[in-house]
Amino acid sequence: MRADPAFAAPGRFFKGNVHTHSTRSDGARGPAEVCATYREAGYDFLALTDHFQAKFGFPIVDTRPWRTEGFTTILGAEVHAPATALGETWHILAVGLPLDFAPTPEAESGPQLAQRCLDAGAFVALPHPGWYALSTTDAATIPGAHAVEIYNHTSATRIDRGDGAYLIDQLLAEGRRVNLLATDDAHFHSDDAFGGWLMVKAGANEPGALLAALKAGHFYSTQGPMIEAIHWGEDSVEVHCSPASTVAVLGRGSRSMPAIAPGQTRVVLPLAPRMLEGGFGRIVVVDEAGKKAWSNAYWF
Length: 300
Ligand SMILES: [Zn+2]
Ligand SMILES: [Zn+2]
Fold this sequence. Notes:
By secondary structure, the chain is an alpha+beta fold. The chain contains 8 helices and 17 strands. It has helices at about 5-10, 30-40, 110-120, 135-140, 155-160, 165-175, 205-215, 275; strands at about 1-5, 10-15, 45-50, 50, 70-80, 90-95, 125, 145-150, 180-185, 195-200, 220, 225-230, 235-250, 255-270, 280-285, 290-295, 300. Strand 5 and strand 6 (about 90-95) form a beta hairpin. The longest helix has 10 residues, at about 30-40. The relative contact order is 0.15. The model has no long low-confidence stretch (mean pLDDT about 100). The protein binds zinc ion (2 copies).
């Protein structure tokens, strides 16, 4: 048995959200209040990611003043440029940007802007693909993206388009090693915070260590359930988790193997040859309230 890389990594898990807005773009609360809101809710870290657009003065909000003992921040933004296959403005999440990241020139495309974020050292993710029907063709134009949102709480609760699984599973089937990210994308105009977050395994609750762990895929995503361990064997996978009614391994195309029973905290799922031939497996845990946790994909 081999521990899943996210769990084998040294350190401990830190709870954080890497997609949030404030009054520096279209959010309802000021940056200090947003940071305090997450800190008081027990989060270890936050990336405030206001919309990096001319109408908001291209904000990279300096959240360093609101770091405290036990709570840190990573600087970032949600950046925008033309245009997806459907003619929509790109939304690109960039976590770990420098304060002096240059404004987006009018001629810059989404993929060019994403590359500039990557070159600046950011963890780059494609947020809320379901919200604007982002396609695999679009995703292929940003080959360096580290992750895609599996769950965006604001898109889910406002318009029932919070799910990113369809795009992620297409990309994984193409062999693309993209990770799964849950965020809440809170704007605080309504009760939209705390619906999805990350558990990042890192050596310290410090921006550099967290950023490295994000880029390495040393995290899982959740709406509440906890994944405590995943061990991959030759022909089975073992999952330890908070009480779950479904624990499943999902692979290429239709490949899947669930264990369905109330209150499961340790599950061993067989990995059939067909699953292994598919190239990857990812774990989903669902509790009796329907809340989910998602691992990143493991490559056999
Ligand atoms: Zn967005
Ligand atoms: Zn957003």
